[in-house]
Design brief:
Helix content is 55%, strand content 10%. With 203 residues, it is α/β, with parallel strands linked by helices. It folds into 2 domains: 60 residues, no CATH class; 129 residues, P-loop containing nucleotide triphosphate hydrolases (Rossmann fold, 3-Layer(aba) Sandwich). The chain has a 4-stranded parallel sheet with strand order 1-4-3-2.
Amino acid sequence: MTTQSTIDKLIEMRLTSMSDAFLTQLQDARMRDISFEDRFGMLVDIEYSNRKSNSLKRLIRNAGFDQPDAYIGDINYTSGRKLNRSLIERLATCEYITEHRNLFITGATGSGKTYMACAFGMEACKRRYTTKYVRLPDLLLELEMARNDGTYKKVQSKYANPVLLIIDEWLLLKPTASEQHDILELLHRRRKKSSTIFCSQYD
């Protein structure tokens, strides 16, 4: 079997990172002093790391975060904000997700609710939990449009299936009867199997 044949097969199997690393090894004279097992392990590690990285990027992209740069480590704990650092750090472990618990983040406009929710969402993505962010007005509008064009069940599943759902601007306005039905149906489908973060200006 020729080297090119090996590379072609790696590419055909979509092991492109391993293929590139294999070519790099062939061109590096220092690799001749390394055992086959170690060289093969290096190739596998590179392919594995790149796949994990691409998987994380895909989860973050699909989540649709309002603030995709949110990071737990950047949360501002100045005294005026009255934030509980130990609680936030515990929630960042995503233990509440494994227990199927929900979070409510409340505070005035501009207090950083969305940032904190997105930061928790980022931590969920890092642990490979499917996550989705949506503003409640956008969610209700999407469900109303779906009801009219026959895709209601599909859109409901879009928000019912993620392990973590972040609903921002929770109940800023009183929902109509049909909107109440949509909300209750969605939350019923998510109960006891997933977690939801609600962000609201109201306690």
